[in-house]
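Hi, here's the filled form for the chain we discussed.

Project: internal
Contact: R.S.
Residues: 97
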Amino acid sequence: MRKTLKPIQLNRVHVERAIRDNGHLYFGATFKKVNGDIRVMSAKTGVRKGLKGGINKVVKENNSYMTVYDNNAKGFRTLNLATVQTLTMQGRHYEVV
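And the returned structure, exactly as it came back:
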């Protein structure tokens, strides 16, 4: 029987660093979309396959967006770090506060 562990609280300002520190491993993210829907994503960073070149105009130093590869949708998606509610990485569950 699997134990249900209490989620680890993660401050919102540390979400990006936690994802980057995860390396190129898959992680789960639950976040609120622009239309208010809650979405669960299985994603990873560092994917280069399928890129067509050009400049990423969404991700800049002064905003809270991160481009990730969504394994469920089989494509690149933009994750708004300001709306992330939970993260699951390397067997640990984080609640973003």
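Let me know if anything looks off before we file it.
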